[in-house]
């Protein structure tokens, strides 16, 4: 359904599952385990896994906080996209990587729900991709001191609105880890 021509393939985008990003997030261990499960299933199906890694003044490259969590191990053959903005497409190599892999459909998992996950989902759909959020494989930290809802509500709301999102000629949605079908439509 994607609007991108000659892009029949699917990829898994693992966004910012880094030590300093997921430390102290809502249900961190369960989310990391679900991401790990998705990565293994994608590899078994020969679906590209694309890792996205954020850096900024608070998340310095090569620091321990910047590193991917120890529970996950990117394969040397899997693309690693470095980013400095919430949207993983913004001023990065992500579009070039996905185009080279013939990808027009992405599953998105990682952190943080209310910033990089939302921005990357919107970035994908406005660029012509079908974009599915893995509803139990993303998380965020507690931002209630700054007026945000509690993390579980942020996650639930994001799952709700992305599950009902639409765009001309593109497909969005939200599915649980167990229901991800890299070959089909969910």
Main features:
about 190 residues, alpha/beta, about 30% helix, about 25% strand
Number of helical stretches of at least 4 residues:
5
Give Rg in angstroms: 15 Å
Which structural class best describes the helix and strand composition?
alpha/beta
Helix content: 25-40%
Average of the residue pLDDT scores: 96
Terminus-to-terminus distance: 12 Å
* Percentage of residues in strands: 15-25%
Tell how many strands the DSSP assignment holds.
7
Sheet bearing the most strands, described?
7 strands, mixed
Q: Care to describe what's here?
A:
With 186 residues, the chain is α/β, with parallel strands linked by helices. The chain is 30% helix and 24% strand. It has five helices and seven strands, in the order E-H-H-E-E-H-E-H-E-H-E-E. It has a seven-stranded mixed sheet with strand order 3-2-1-4-5-7-6. Helix 4 links the parallel strand 4 and strand 5. The chain is globular and about 45 Å long.
């Amino acid at each position: 359904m994607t609007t991108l021509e000659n892009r029949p393939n699917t990829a898994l985008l693992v966004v910012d599952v880094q030590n300093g990003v997921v430390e102290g997030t809502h249900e961190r261990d369960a989310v990391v385990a679900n991401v790990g499960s998705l990565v293994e299933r994608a590899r078994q199906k020969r679906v590209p896994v694309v890792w996205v890694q954020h850096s900024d003044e608070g998340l310095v490259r090569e620091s321990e906080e910047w590193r991917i969590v120890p529970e996950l191990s990117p394969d040397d053959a899997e693309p690693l996209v470095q980013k400095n903005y919430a949207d993983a497409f913004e001023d990065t190599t992500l579009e070039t990587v996905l185009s080279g892999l013939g990808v027009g459909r992405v599953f998105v998992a990682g952190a943080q729900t209310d910033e990089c996950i939302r921005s990357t989902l919107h970035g994908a759909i406005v660029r012509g991709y079908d974009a599915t959020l893995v509803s139990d494989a993303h998380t965020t930290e507690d931002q209630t001191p700054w007026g945000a809802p509690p993390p579980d509500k942020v996650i639930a709301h994001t799952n709700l609105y992305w599950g009902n999102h639409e765009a001309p000629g593109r497909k969005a949605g939200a599915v649980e880890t167990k229901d991800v079908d890299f070959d089909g439509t969910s």
